[in-house]
Request: fold
Amino acid sequence: MRALKKTLNVLSISPVLHHSACRRAAFFLPKDLGSCSPLPNAVASKRMSTSSTPSHSPSPFTPRSTPTFSYRIGASFSAKGRRFDPKTDVFTFNNQTQITSEQDVFTGRPNSGQDAFFVSKAGNSSNVAFGVADGVGGWADQGIDSADFSHGLCQGMARIARELHSPDKKDLWPQYILGNAYQEILREGKIGGGGSTACLATGDEDGNLKVANLGDSGFIQFRLNAVHHFSNPQTHAFNTPFQLSVIPPKILALSRLFGGKQLSDSPEDSNDTSHEVRHGDVLMFATDGVWDNLSTRELLKIVSRQMTGFHAWETGEKGTTVSEMIHDLTQDGGIPKQHENNLQTLLAVNVVGEAKAVSMNTKRDGPFAKEVQKFYPHENYHGGKVDDICVIVAIVVRNE
Reply:
């Protein structure tokens, strides 16, 4: 199928589109950014914030002797160019009944391409931290695979979250975790170059969800057959997201010589929000392989079909309510006849499978195709956007 590429080099950036590959830009020159107008708002048109509370001033989490909420978490992923296998391309985490052998954290490197994710307990408590990162493909023009950066960033965030000793303080804030993981990468110097977006959260047992979103990954909060909140992407220009970067010395030298500027944002540039979760909420964190191929309405349809089909959400005289069955459905073996044997993992698999199918369909225009058609009608772009895909689904359950 035809795909889209953002041309990129250290000296200039052009909005010209090609059908050979599809990579997001990692660099730009200020003098050329104007040529992209009005595109800085193009990607943002995909998702609008419906309700969020800026959270630049940390407020402490209140510890409880008995947890109130738990987060039943599943993840699924599929690398670009690889066949999606719902039996193997999955991961399940339960902060009450299941923890992994690797110190309560998943930090492996799955076959997810340049997309990465992490799930971890946050400190010695029932708090959790989880998120996704998407390596910026434009770095490939410099001979750099951003997969090392995105996976390294997730491994660092998981480790930092797990080692927290005072989760009632500001260090449970996602921006703190993101910033320390990024500084760790810079300090160690093992990753020579690359860039990545990130969208991560911490959830506590009192139902407080904190989110930090940098770039064009993002999240949705579903509640009882409705979209309660969905995040705004951050972009400098069309197909050029906010990103953390490691810039090699050679490229820095060229920048000084020719006066160019490389795109490297700061963890402090992330959009930080606070949310209250309720029993039965579904939280979905995903990379742009989802958002570029599936609309919010389509995602709601997938989630509602599964939540109502398995009677986790029920509709009656009092409207839609959360069923008591949700406790069992989100446990291991809660859906015994499925390969993905709990509801949260099944949801993640369904979203990845649908996004994968749409990405390879040349006749079904997704959100990305519609944006290209709007701003570059001469390109005659149709179909999905082939990309790596990564999804984390957390179902919030009130403890019995």
